[in-house]
Amino acid sequence: MASVVKLSVSAFVFCALAARSLRAQEGVAKPSKDSSSSCSRAAEGSVVPEPADLRSQDGVLRVDLAFRDYRDANGAMRYCYVTQNGDVAPNLRLHPGDTLILRLKNEATPPDRNASSGSQHSNHAASNDANAKPDPCAGGTMTVSATNLHFHGLVIPAACHQDETLKTLIQPADAAFEYRFQIPPTQPPGLYWYHPHPHGFSKAQVLGGASGALIVEGIEQANPK
To answer: I need a surface site. Which of 6, 41, 103, 129 has the fewest CB within 10 A?
Structure first.
């Protein structure tokens, strides 16, 4: 009789936990498959899911990110970073001494050619060669859809393909741009972040949602308590 009671109680607890889990899942906003809303946002009042954790393996973390935009129901432009698996703004987890290889593809809406000068400006002289491929490292026209990456707080060189933001501009028509650098062995462990830094348009892109956490592991070594 006792075993039957225990079994019944266990079944009841299991069903209660399953029901609670189902209710919790119903409150979590799931990424939309619609490309027009690829920058998924949790609905008001719902549970905000934890970002995916991407961890380095054998001293290397390889990441492919797409920079995307869309207009919300109020007409405001929103931005985000999305992985090939549809994860938005993943956590990048590395250790001191690890290498980050991040390929960024700008998939934002191309700028309007008839846009006013207030929405775009150039930081270098235009090339006379119509067939020349633009070099993202050499500067270009700064527009609301041009972007780059800044790794906030990391002690890495301000060089192209690392952490240079004055001239590095990735346009929507460009191929995926590769960032490659080593987390310094002396980098203090803790929470850092990555975000766009095209001068003149950084605020719009960051406040529009384009940012993510970069976590340097090892806090327990720096602070055992």
So the answer is: 129
* CA dist., res. 13 & res. 11, Å (int): 5
From first to last of its 225 residues, the chain has per-residue pLDDT tens of 444 434 343 443 334 434 443 333 333 333 333 444 478 777 889 998 899 999 999 999 999 999 999 998 888 899 999 999 999 999 999 999 999 999 999 999 997 765 554 555 555 444 444 455 679 999 888 888 999 999 999 999 999 999 999 999 999 999 999 999 999 999 999 999 999 999 999 999 999 999 999 999 998 887 888
Q: What is the pTM of this model?
A: 0.76
Q: What is the CA radius of gyration of the chain?
A: 22
CA distance 65 to 102: 7
User: In what helix (H) or strand (E) does residue 177 lie, and over which residues does it extend?
Assistant: strand 177-182
Alpha-carbon distance of 54 to 75, in angstroms, equals 32
Separation of alpha carbons 70 and 34, rounded Å: 11
Pairing status of strand 53-55 against strand 91-94: parallel
Cβ-in-10-Å burial (0-12, 13-18, 19+) of 100 comes to buried
